[in-house]
Amino acid sequence: xxKILLLILTLSxxxxxxxxxxxxxxxxxxxxxxxxxxxxDNAHLxxxxxxxxxxxxxxxxxxEAFGKDFNTNNLTxxxxxxxxxxxxxxxxxxxxxxxxxxxxxxxxxxxxxGKTSIMYxxxxxxxxxxxAYPVLKELEFKVIKAIEAAL
Length: 151
Fold this sequence. Notes:
Elements: H1 2-19, E1 20-25, H2 29-42, E2 46-52, H3 53-59, H4 62-66, E3 77-84, H5 86-95, E4 105-112, E5 115-121, H6 133-149
Antiparallel strand pairs: 1-5, 2-3, 3-4, 4-5
Protein backbone atom coordinates (compact mmCIF):
# COMPACT_ATOMS: atom_id res chain seq x y z
CA UNK A 1 0.00 0.00 0.00
CA UNK A 2 2.84 2.41 0.85
CA LYS A 3 4.46 1.74 -2.53
CA ILE A 4 1.22 2.55 -4.34
CA LEU A 5 0.80 5.81 -2.41
CA LEU A 6 4.41 6.75 -3.12
CA LEU A 7 3.91 6.03 -6.83
CA ILE A 8 0.74 8.16 -6.91
CA LEU A 9 2.51 11.02 -5.13
CA THR A 10 5.50 10.83 -7.49
CA LEU A 11 3.26 10.87 -10.57
CA SER A 12 1.27 13.82 -9.18
CA UNK A 13 4.42 15.85 -8.57
CA UNK A 14 5.74 15.01 -12.03
CA UNK A 15 2.50 16.10 -13.65
CA UNK A 16 2.49 19.35 -11.68
CA UNK A 17 6.12 20.05 -12.60
CA UNK A 18 5.16 19.66 -16.26
CA UNK A 19 2.29 22.12 -15.75
CA UNK A 20 4.71 25.03 -15.45
CA UNK A 21 6.92 25.81 -18.41
CA UNK A 22 10.15 27.51 -17.27
CA UNK A 23 12.86 29.08 -19.40
CA UNK A 24 15.94 30.51 -17.68
CA UNK A 25 18.24 33.03 -19.32
CA UNK A 26 21.73 33.90 -18.14
CA UNK A 27 20.91 37.61 -18.14
CA UNK A 28 19.41 40.09 -15.69
CA UNK A 29 15.74 40.97 -15.93
CA UNK A 30 16.40 44.46 -17.29
CA UNK A 31 17.90 42.76 -20.39
CA UNK A 32 15.34 39.95 -20.72
CA UNK A 33 12.13 41.84 -19.95
CA UNK A 34 12.13 44.28 -22.91
CA UNK A 35 12.98 41.44 -25.28
CA UNK A 36 10.07 39.39 -23.92
CA UNK A 37 7.68 42.31 -24.42
CA UNK A 38 8.94 42.75 -28.01
CA UNK A 39 8.63 39.01 -28.63
CA UNK A 40 5.05 39.03 -27.33
CA ASP A 41 4.27 41.98 -29.59
CA ASN A 42 5.75 40.13 -32.58
CA ALA A 43 3.60 37.10 -31.71
CA HIS A 44 0.47 39.29 -31.53
CA LEU A 45 0.16 38.74 -27.79
CA UNK A 46 -1.06 42.11 -26.56
CA UNK A 47 0.31 43.02 -23.14
CA UNK A 48 -2.62 44.35 -21.13
CA UNK A 49 -0.87 44.61 -17.77
CA UNK A 50 2.66 44.62 -16.36
CA UNK A 51 3.12 44.27 -12.61
CA UNK A 52 6.32 44.86 -10.63
CA UNK A 53 5.45 42.41 -7.87
CA UNK A 54 8.60 42.80 -5.78
CA UNK A 55 8.42 46.58 -6.13
CA UNK A 56 4.79 46.57 -5.00
CA UNK A 57 5.64 44.33 -2.03
CA UNK A 58 8.40 46.71 -0.99
CA UNK A 59 6.15 49.77 -1.43
CA UNK A 60 3.52 48.08 0.74
CA UNK A 61 6.04 47.73 3.56
CA UNK A 62 6.30 43.95 3.46
CA UNK A 63 10.06 43.85 4.15
CA GLU A 64 9.41 45.58 7.47
CA ALA A 65 6.26 43.56 8.18
CA PHE A 66 7.87 40.16 7.54
CA GLY A 67 11.40 41.00 8.66
CA LYS A 68 13.81 38.11 8.12
CA ASP A 69 10.98 36.06 6.57
CA PHE A 70 10.65 38.45 3.61
CA ASN A 71 11.99 37.17 0.28
CA THR A 72 14.06 34.38 1.81
CA ASN A 73 15.15 33.22 -1.67
CA ASN A 74 16.76 36.65 -2.19
CA LEU A 75 15.10 37.30 -5.54
CA THR A 76 16.19 40.64 -6.96
CA UNK A 77 13.12 41.13 -9.16
CA UNK A 78 9.66 39.61 -9.62
CA UNK A 79 7.35 40.74 -12.40
CA UNK A 80 4.16 39.48 -14.01
CA UNK A 81 2.91 40.10 -17.52
CA UNK A 82 -0.68 39.55 -18.56
CA UNK A 83 -1.23 39.27 -22.30
CA UNK A 84 -4.05 38.39 -24.65
CA UNK A 85 -4.73 37.71 -28.29
CA UNK A 86 -8.22 38.61 -29.52
CA UNK A 87 -8.54 35.63 -31.84
CA UNK A 88 -7.63 33.14 -29.12
CA UNK A 89 -9.76 34.89 -26.51
CA UNK A 90 -12.78 34.87 -28.80
CA UNK A 91 -12.24 31.22 -29.78
CA UNK A 92 -11.95 30.14 -26.14
CA UNK A 93 -14.99 32.09 -24.95
CA UNK A 94 -17.04 30.71 -27.85
CA UNK A 95 -15.93 27.13 -27.13
CA UNK A 96 -16.00 26.98 -23.34
CA UNK A 97 -16.31 30.23 -21.32
CA UNK A 98 -14.96 28.59 -18.15
CA UNK A 99 -11.63 28.08 -19.88
CA UNK A 100 -11.14 31.87 -20.01
CA UNK A 101 -9.15 31.30 -16.83
CA UNK A 102 -6.33 30.44 -19.27
CA UNK A 103 -6.86 33.41 -21.57
CA UNK A 104 -5.51 36.02 -21.05
CA UNK A 105 -2.23 34.37 -20.25
CA UNK A 106 0.10 35.30 -17.42
CA UNK A 107 3.83 34.84 -17.26
CA UNK A 108 5.93 35.48 -14.19
CA UNK A 109 9.56 36.51 -14.30
CA UNK A 110 11.98 36.16 -11.41
CA UNK A 111 15.59 37.25 -11.16
CA UNK A 112 18.26 35.78 -8.93
CA UNK A 113 22.05 35.94 -9.21
CA GLY A 114 21.85 37.77 -12.55
CA LYS A 115 19.68 35.07 -14.15
CA THR A 116 16.07 35.52 -15.19
CA SER A 117 13.48 32.73 -15.29
CA ILE A 118 10.21 33.11 -17.16
CA MET A 119 7.42 30.84 -15.96
CA TYR A 120 4.11 30.10 -17.64
CA UNK A 121 1.33 27.78 -16.44
CA UNK A 122 0.59 25.67 -19.49
CA UNK A 123 -2.95 26.02 -20.75
CA UNK A 124 -2.98 22.32 -21.62
CA UNK A 125 -3.47 21.55 -17.93
CA UNK A 126 -7.09 22.32 -18.79
CA UNK A 127 -9.50 19.45 -19.18
CA UNK A 128 -8.96 17.59 -22.43
CA UNK A 129 -12.74 17.16 -22.51
CA UNK A 130 -13.22 20.91 -22.93
CA UNK A 131 -14.26 22.10 -26.39
CA ALA A 132 -11.66 24.85 -25.94
CA TYR A 133 -8.78 22.39 -25.47
CA PRO A 134 -7.54 22.46 -29.10
CA VAL A 135 -7.45 26.28 -29.02
CA LEU A 136 -5.70 26.30 -25.64
CA LYS A 137 -3.12 23.86 -26.98
CA GLU A 138 -2.44 26.19 -29.89
CA LEU A 139 -2.24 29.18 -27.54
CA GLU A 140 0.28 27.36 -25.34
CA PHE A 141 2.47 26.68 -28.35
CA LYS A 142 2.32 30.36 -29.34
CA VAL A 143 3.23 31.59 -25.83
CA ILE A 144 6.15 29.18 -25.42
CA LYS A 145 7.46 30.05 -28.86
CA ALA A 146 7.34 33.76 -27.93
CA ILE A 147 9.15 33.11 -24.64
CA GLU A 148 11.86 31.15 -26.42
CA ALA A 149 12.22 33.84 -29.09
CA ALA A 150 12.84 36.49 -26.44
CA LEU A 151 16.60 35.84 -26.46
